[in-house]
Amino acid sequence: MSTTELVWLKSSYSGTGGDNCVEAAMCPEAVLVRDSKDLRRQPLSISPAAWVDFIGHATR
């Protein structure tokens, strides 16, 4: 699956001024995370289980 076919969601912690934007896209085998300002780089790919752990720690 290419990164253009994915639905990218902007982090709720990202500001509305267009800076510090982190986006995530979910697919069955991984969660992809990218900096919306630097689309030349490959997104970070992590397992869905690691994503759940990360989100759980971020909301505590």
Automatic annotation (TrEMBL):
Instruction: Identify the residues that the record assigns to the DUF397 domain, covering every copy.
Output: 6-58
Show the InterPro entries listed in the entry.
DUF397
Q: What is this protein called?
A: DUF397 domain-containing protein
Q: Which organism is it from?
A: Streptomyces zingiberis
